[in-house]
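quick one, 132 residues, struct below
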Amino acid sequence: MRHKKLISTALSGVAAGLILAIRVHAQQATPPETAAPTTQSIKLERDTVQSSAAHHYNSPAERANDALIITEVKTSLADQGITDRYPVAVDCDHGTVQLTGVVASPDDAKQAVALAQNIKGVVDVKNQLTWR
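---
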């Protein structure tokens, strides 16, 4: 099961990278300091989580760095089983990771923060996780 999840996470990362590359190519003609809205919605059984943010990037590289951090945090959370049955949204803005959603316990919330803090490029983690 973990192998399938790892493959799924990897494919999601590749898809996100392709989408990012397409968007970067399409936005090369736009002036710097554009706002990039982000909206995520996750629903698992009865629990749901939504997040929305506007990011202001000075270059496509900044946007790509945040996308990479998001992918690595999501992969780490999945590898540890923290997001197996619970919705967790991960967002990143200039290296500041925001974790939103539901996890199984306070210990899982602490572990999620610790995992995110250990990802290269993360400067801060905002924990908005709740638990059941």
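Residues 2-26 form the longest helix (25 residues).
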